Amino acid sequence: MLTFTLGTFAIALNHLLLISALALATFVGWRVAKRGGENPESVLFSLFLLGMLAARVGFVIAYWAHYRNDPWQIIDLRDGGFLAWPGVLVLLLAALYRGWRRPGLRRPLGFGVVSGLAFWLLATFSLSLYEQGTRLPQITLRNAAGQTVQLSDYQGGPLVINLWATWCPPCRREMPVLENAQQQRPDLTFLFVNQAESMQSVSTFLETQGLSLTNVLFDGSGRLSHAVGSMALPTTLFYSPDGHLLGSHLGELSEASLARALENFDTPNPATSATPSRKLPCLASATC
Q: Which residues span the domain enclosing 68?
């Protein structure tokens, strides 16, 4: 399960964990403050924002090579590019400073920060263990010729699966990034699994956008989304050669966030590239 879904609303679990950690920290701090001290609610929120800012800055510095040609991407947070450790470090240092300046805050703020961080770390670790324990679903899909293919046909090498649709704006924006990665990383197999759209509409979209993609597949009923537990698009999944899920990314990928996700794989080795057990026809606008 990668998303929490309520009706038409879907949120990534890692985002939900962050919000839950802030809510828990606020509640604990408020309860402790009732026994003596200042309510740390506003301080905790400002620390949360400061930590997120530091996490973003840390990510941009670490992957600056992908931002320097287009600095405007730095403020585009839709790619989910954050590094946890700079955010946590800055948050803790700022909390210590606030506590030193305002003695009445020390106990409530300390309990709030510790409880929130402990919950987030434990929950994130548990979610990571759960993800890495899941396997490549045994799903039947169709190729551009309407032929039936098995998702397991592609197992045997590093695998990147992108769930997308033409009506999805972030899917459309990230397609050039994925197309470039497919061309630059022949050691990886990229699958573009369209969700519940006709072959004709997808073919027209790829042609009008000038996209050249291999391995465009069709999931007419959205069974793959249900199998991996993600009701949000786009969703990108990263599988090891033996079919274990290494990681996932919900939302738009930028060059930087994709580069970070691809670090899940070992040193590129073209000999380990996955090859399906049968030749699959491509769309008219794709390159085989």
A: 11-132
What the block records as the tokens of 216 is 């465009």
CB atoms near residue 184 (< 10 Å): 10
**pTM of structure:** 0.85
Residues in CB range of 243: below 8 A, 6 or more apart: 135, 136, 152, 155
Neighbouring CB atoms inside 10 A of 255's CB total: 21
CB-based burial of residue 172 (10 Å sphere; 0-12 exposed, 13-18 middle, 19+ buried)?
Answer: middle
Residues 48 and 121 in one domain: yes
Instruction: Write the pLDDT tens digit of every residue in 57-69.
Output: 999 999 999 999 8
Identify whether residues 154 and 78 lie together within a single domain.
Answer: no
CA torsion sign for 50, 51, 56, 57 is positive
Residue 148 CB coordination number (10 Å): 8
Q: What is the pLDDT of residues 158-185, one digit of tens each?
A: 999 999 999 999 999 999 999 999 999 9
Residue 254 to residue 181: CA distance in whole angstroms:
11
